Prior knowledge:
Layout (H helix, E strand, L loop, with lengths): L14 H20 L4 H5 L9 H20 L19 H5 L5 H19 L7 E5 L5 E3 H27 L5
Antiparallel strand pairs: 1-2
Amino acid sequence: MGGMDRIDPTPAADEATTLAQFLDYQRATLLGKAEGLDAAGLSRRLPPSTLTLGGLLKHLALVEEHWIQVRFLGRPEQEPWVSVSWEDDPDWEFRTAAQDDSEALRELYRTACDHSRAAVAGVDLGALSAGVNRAGEHWSLRWILVHLIEETARHNGHADLLREAVDGTVGE
């Protein structure tokens, strides 16, 4: 499915494995929703919303990179994100996805997920982020992974509706 198999999480795994498997399941779900679609399919909107499957792929690639690479590891933001003027265009990733090649969008997301997976492999869930929130508090890796699961799953609900509008495909 889009270069990432969707595998049901193991029912009795340790906490780190459970979080990783649930996140991978949600990641694979999004890629499955975008599988086989060309640029027109990935750019299709369901009015009045302006969301698109391509926009969701690009947004969630940004979310993966920002939360793991920037906030957790403290690394500098990379392209295509670093040169964006977020104050001028806070929805840049959603808006510009329509200009991107469909396979390039899927690959951007797959690569971001691969980077995240590699970055947290073997890291203790209680490890604290390099970055801090507005109150000066660090996030634990556990919190970040749960947040990524929540955000990806929430957007997968949008992806369900968008894919159905594109070609009638429904289900998991």
